[in-house]
Amino acid sequence: MIADIIRNAAHADAAIIGGGSIRTSIKKGEIKIKHVYSVSPFNNYVVAVKLTGRQIREALENGVSAVEESGGRFPQVSGLSFVYSRSAPVGSRVKEVMHQRPKD
C-alpha cells in the first residue's frame, strides 16, 4: 500500500521501496496520524527517476540479496511484480520482472 501511495504521488509507472522503511502495521479501526508516523517514522522524500529494465532488475536483486537474513531490504513494489529464487546465487535470484499496466 505504501509503494502504491508513493507511485501515485510521483505519477510513476512503478515504485520500489525497501521493506525496512516500514516499521510496524496498523490495527483495524480508527487510524490516527500517530499511527501513520509509527509505520513510516522517517522524513523521506519521494524521488522519481527514469530507470532502464536492467537498473530495475539490479535494484530488485539488491533487495533479495539477503532475504535469508531478514535484513529489511526486501523490496515492496507497486506497478510491477517479480519472481525470484531464494536458492539461486546472490546476483542471479530475480528470474522474472513484469510491469503491470494501470487499469483504465
- The overall pLDDT, averaged over residues, is 93
Total number of helices: 3
Instruction: Report low-confidence residues grouped into runs of 5 or more.
Output: none
What would you call the quaternary organization?
single chain
What is the chain-wise order of helices and strands?
HEHHEEE
The chain-level structural class is: alpha+beta
Helix content: 25-40%
Short description:
The protein is α+β, with helices and mostly antiparallel strands.
Question: If you had to describe this structure to a student in words, what would you say it looks like?
Answer:
With 104 residues, this protein is of the alpha+beta class. It is built from three helices and four strands, in the order H-E-H-H-E-E-E. The protein has a two-stranded antiparallel ribbon with strand order 1-2. The mean pLDDT is 93.
